[in-house]
Amino acid sequence: MGAGHAHGPAVSSGRRHLRPLVIAFSLTATFMVVEFVVGFWTGSLALISDAAHMGTDVIGLGMAMAAILVASRSTDPQRTYGLYRLEVLAALANGVLLFGVAGWVLVEAVRRFSEPPEVPGLPLLVTAVLGLVVNVISFRLLAAGAKESLNVRGAHLEVLGDLLGSVGVVVAAVVLWTTGWSYVDPLVGVAIGLFILPRTWRLSRQALRILLEVAPPEVEIAQVRDALLAVPGVAAVHDLHVWTITSGMDSASAHVVVEAGADRDTVLTGVHAVLRERFEVTHATIQCEAERFGDEEAHHA
After folding, report:
1. Residues pairing with 287 in the sheet
2. What's the CATH number of domain 221-298, 3.30.70.1350, 1.10.8.60, 3.40.50.300, 3.40.50.1110?
3. Would you kindly state where each structural domain of the chain is located, as residue ranges?
4. CATH architecture of 8-211
5. Can you tell me the distance from the alpha carbon of 290 to that of 107, in angstroms, rounded to the nearest whole number?
6. Which pLDDT score, from 0 to 100, does residue 193 have?
7. pLDDT value at position 2?
8. Which of 27, 181, 39 is CA-nearest to residue 123?
């Protein structure tokens, strides 16, 4: 059986994402405290809400960092794939947190329609603008890693949600400062909540697909089977499985029946090449079976 268990690239990739996560975590945690202080000082429920939203960012970023650190330091030989699934669990936990925050924002927004708070606009505006700057910096720091890692993508989505929350607070502050129209605050709250929910659902669904070992969405099992059957010397394919270990690490296993007279090593090489080049599956375990005699041989690629 040809199995690829090269952990090095995934570990180095996780470590590469660690530095921007640490910077984003530090910035977000610091300004979360600032927003809580100013929010309670001015009585601004909008600012306190945004600070609470930032608090979920801090938790999410902290879990993302912990997942990378623990996964990269795993040396237990019994964990043949390391602790890469911690990344996926962290992303799912982030999704649950985001669902909670979005629900709280919607409930709080409804409450404010009946009792709109009176908040001074200028202190709210200054703090919201500073918070927006912090979120923009964190968002840009995590943008590259979000394309490669589901874990970082979860943190990136949380920062995006908070960035939009800061924009909403800025808008509310400007309206409050210039017009005194207090209903702008719950309206902005509803908009933020409705923006967060669908994106959170997509993130959680992706994490659940990995945990349930569903084939990656971009890989059609029927197409993989047809591609393997097209390899010269392959008579049949059965027990075909494709799943994701963690972001950027797809795996496959299959039994390939080799035609009588065909060279098994050549067939095995061809099967691995198809999986690698057409479907970007570099970790594959393929068992070759003789078509005529039914004997099985394990080949290592």
Report:
1. 255, 298
2. 3.30.70.1350
3. 8-211, 221-298
4. Up-down Bundle (1.20)
5. 64
6. 72
7. 41
8. 39
As given in the structure block, the two tokens for residue 91 are 């992303």
pLDDT along the chain (301 residues), means of 10: 41 63 89 87 75 77 74 66 74 82 79 74 85 90 77 77 82 84 78 76 86 90 95 94 84 93 92 94 91 48 43
pLDDT at 63: 73
Tokens of 229: 């059957």
d(CA 43, CA 182): 13
State the SS3 of the chain. Answer: CCCCCCCHHHHHHHHHHHHHHHHHHHHHHHHHHHHHHHHHHHCCHHHHHHHHHHHHHHHHHHHHHHHHHHHHCCCCCCCCCCCCHHHHHHHHHHHHHHHHHHHHHHHHHHHHHHCCCCCCHHHHHHHHHHHHHHHHHHHHHHHHHHCCCHHHHHHHHHHHHHHHHHHHHHHHHHHHHHCCCCCHHHHHHHHHHHHHHHHHHHHHHHHHHHHCCCCCCCCCHHHHHHHHHCCCCEEEEEEEEEEEEECCEEEEEEEEEECCCCCHHHHHHHHHHHHHHHHCCCEEEEEEEECCCCCEEECCC
In degrees, rounded to 5, the angle at the alpha carbon of residue 244 between the alpha carbons of residues 230 and 195 is 120
